[in-house]
What we know:
Layout: H1 17-21, E1 30-31, H2 34-43, E2 47-52, H3 57-67, H4 70-79, E3 81-86, H5 91-103, E4 112-116, E5 122-126, H6 131-145, H7 150-165, H8 168-172, H9 183-194, H10 213-226, H11 229-244, E6 258-259, E7 267-268, E8 271-272, H12 273-290, H13 293-309, E9 320-321, E10 324-325, E11 328-329, H14 337-344, H15 348-354, H16 376-382, H17 387-405, E12 413-414, E13 417-418, H18 419-436, H19 439-455, E14 465-469, E15 472-476, H20 479-496, H21 499-516, E16 517-518, E17 521-524, H22 549-563, H23 567-586, H24 592-602, E18 606-611, H25 615-623, E19 630-635, E20 654-659, E21 662-663, H26 670-681
Parallel strand pairs: 1-3, 2-3, 18-19
Antiparallel strand pairs: 2-4, 4-5, 6-7, 8-9, 9-12, 10-11, 13-14, 14-15, 16-17, 18-20, 20-21
Helix pairs in contact: 4-6, 5-7, 10-11, 10-12, 10-24, 12-13, 12-18, 14-15, 16-17, 18-19, 18-20, 20-21, 20-22, 21-22, 22-23, 22-24, 23-24
Amino acid sequence: MPVPPSHPNRLIHETSPYLLQHAHNPVDWFPWGEEALGRARTEQKPILVSIGYAACHWCHVMERESFEHEQIARVMNERFVCIKVDREERPDVDQVYLDAVQAMGVGGGWPLNVFLTPEAKPFYGGTYFPPRQWFELLQQVANAYQSANRPALDQSAEDFARVLRATELEKYGVQPATAGLRRPELRKLLGRLEKSFDRARGGTGGAPKFPMPAIWRLLLRAQQLTGQPSALQQTALTLTEMAWGGIYDQVGGGFARYSVDEQWRVPHFEKMLYDNGQLVSLYAEAYQVTQDEHYRAVVQQTVAFVQRELLSPEGGFYASLDADSEGEEGRFYVFTLAELYDVLGDEASLAADYYQCTALGNWEHGRNVLHRRQSDTDFAAAHQLAPGVVAELVRGWQQRLLAYRSRRVRPSLDDKILTGWNALMLRGLCDAYRAFADAEYLALARQNAAFIEANLVRADTGGLWRSWKAGHGRVVAFLEDYSLLIDAYVSLYEVTFEERWLRRAGELTEYALAHFSDAADPHLFYTDAAGEALIARKKELFDNVIPSSNSVMAHNLLRLGTLLDVPAWRERAAAMLAQVQPLAVKEPQHLAHWAALYLSLLCPLAEVAIVGPDAEALRRQLSRHPLPNAVLSGSPAASELPLLQGRFRPDQTTIYVCYRHACHQPVHSVAEALVQLQAAWAVPSP
């Protein structure tokens, strides 16, 4: 039976909200570390490592059903060394054991529960287990490990550990590309990606549907650089359907992690910083291409959500909001039709049509997930209203429903601050500022960058911390943190021309190359050489909702190698792509950010340097235009930017468009520069 909170276990001393949620379980949880691993070796007990995150609905379910259950907890404590891991704080541990469970032929997910030998090698695992099945499994595993079967389990664990040490490319038997970059091969890549499109509701494949921003940013750029109309059509369809769907919070802005159905209607209600940072970038870039005002509104509302609900007083951004409140998934976000009438009065009937709400409800317990099926223009025509009237009504509905909703019990907040996820939001704010020139976006970006520099840089090594909470940085940062922060700092430089951000990006790149490199391979390890050694040192290659750390790093090396004129970095970016190129062409939906690098190297990447007293004004003008394959540099005066000395010495404000180690004739207007850029991107690959 479930038990009330007891004397806290060791997790009470942690800062991770997910670990603290389990601090009063009757299970004698350890955090991941030498104390737990050492005890397992000393007592020769198998280890149970249970991995999840604070916003995970099924993690909460398994806690209530099993980890708060006295009899189950007794078996766990007596027969295992039990370790709890926050996958967001320790993605390295999560990667290793998620790969192990998948190698066992079990689908991955969270909660992730894996049984290990005392040497931390996995021999069995799975995800969520109902309480009876979990209780029986615990007994079966413990009995087997203490029986004559132990040598077989140890050998199985050793075999899995050997599999984990193989790289992704070794598993797939991929050989590096030898033929270089070719436009026919790029067309083949894009054609394969098209086969996965949902032509009716956007996105790729069926349910569940994840936003996958890297795919749509690739297609936006492909359309601009290759003129392929279907790329823009599918991207616009996807962005519109997501913004109309329940995956988008129609009242408060911001996106949930994914939709459980093909229509984007019913979300899995947790809201993650990493999704919203990337989607701000995506919708801002899409606005530059399409000038669709709905996309501007999505950016405005999403930034407002992040600022209202995820911004710390110090200037960092919190990690996530839970899916659950009052013990129910989505309870905070859904409305009955009666509630709509209580809040909106005479306008409720019209609002119910707009948000697809009914008395029976489209969600559990007669409640409705608010979503749309028409543009404001079409809705206005159907109801004989002017479009401007509809827009004004919707703003009023959102304000009143948000005020009403704010009185509910709120979902839990995961208030740790993660370097990589903050970098994604920082990049999003920079992209929003480029598209809309809203000074508030830039102010938020600068505030966040200052927080990162003050709190997430290690004083001892100059490297980074992964996480910050309660005034302290913790956990040696991973390649994800470096790659995403370098990317964000380059973007911050491009929208400010403040050289310190470019220099910081260069310094962090040098650190990453020194501490994450593999002498035998251009790809980088996920973990710092100075960090904790696990049973396998992994390399992250496949792009997921967050692009892989190696693909982001390869883009960084190309961009910075261009801006700082470091040929070795540009060459390494090309070498990193060559290693995965055959797989990217074959499986572009899983390597979309690598495919974007293919596009950048093929077209090619251009540098636009603006120097002179009106550099900032010209930068603002240029930034209003989509620049799918260019980096920006500049300064009010050449003497103030040492990186440009000896290269650009204009007597007046001048724009130089440079690519493949040569510059066009200098020009003095944005229109002339755009013509030169189009010419640059049309140059065939050598």
